[in-house]
Amino acid sequence: MLHLLQMRTLAQDEDWLKKQNQKTNQLTHVLSVDVEDYFQVEAFAGSVDRKDWHQWPSRVVANTHRVLDLFDQHNAKGTFFFVGWVAERFPHLVRAVQARGHELACHSYWHRTVYRITPDEFREDTRQAKKAIEDAAGVPITGYRAPSWSITKSCLWALDILAEEGFTYDSSIYPIHHDLYGVPGAQRFPYMHACANGNGLREFPPATLRLLGTNFPAAGGGYLRIFPSAFTELAFRTFEKKYRERLVVYLHPWELDPEQPRINGSIKSRLRHYTNLGRMHAKLDKVLGRHKFQRFRDVMAADALEQQSSPQGSGVSLKQETYPHVHAASPARQGGS
Q1: Which of 126-130, 284-288, 331-335 has the lowest mean pLDDT?
Q2: For the whole model, what pTM was predicted?
Q3: How far apart are CA 167 and CA 160, in angstroms?
């Protein structure tokens, strides 16, 4: 029996080594996690008041550790965008993520959509979240992702504020049509955004596939969880073979928790939130097993080195371009919502 177990273990090790060898020549994509609890999502913002968050049974610590354990199995490192409210109440979770070698970044404090708040409110919220995360971990953070991809054409002033507050990159602009978010026509691959105030900010759009003249979201969150795995793999193949670009993958800890309490929201919200929760772990496990991943800060560091050695850059480095739709600040810059 022991001999059989040893043979099985050896076979598993050999299989793992084969998978690692197959990854050797692949592009290294970007892996990210939006650390929020199940009751903080925009889908249920009309059902759960923020002032009542503390009354809901939190599951974010256990769920985030599930993500960490799965990442460890595949030696995958990623960037964890923390909601400041979570970081302030569970600083040990922030430190646990950092201790496992992952990058920390900001996902707002109150998880409010940016297009519904004023510039002053956005700045205050961002500062509060940044402080909570940095106080918990003792390290500076330089990356931001808006709740629900909510930096849209009506609030592009937020990018100026992020640069003013010391952030060096953002991953908030989704180049798709959607009822809650999106900037249709935005660039689909990483670029340098020149802010109206003279600062610069790297922008990392989430992955999209261009099909029949339309951008389709792929390989992240509900799109990873709900769409067929074949579509996800098509996205990876297209990015690796055709675009020669890194793909930005994102997920939420609650997506690996099929036992989470159910919230009474609209049918559309419940479909988006609860569909395929029981399959997400297996889907993510497959993606992690087939592809290589890194943190946003690894991309930033590699790009900086490449620019030093070659001013023009090449290959998959970030492009020194400015998205034309993001030049002017919205009138809301003066205080409107």
Answers
A1: 331-335
A2: 0.86
A3: 10
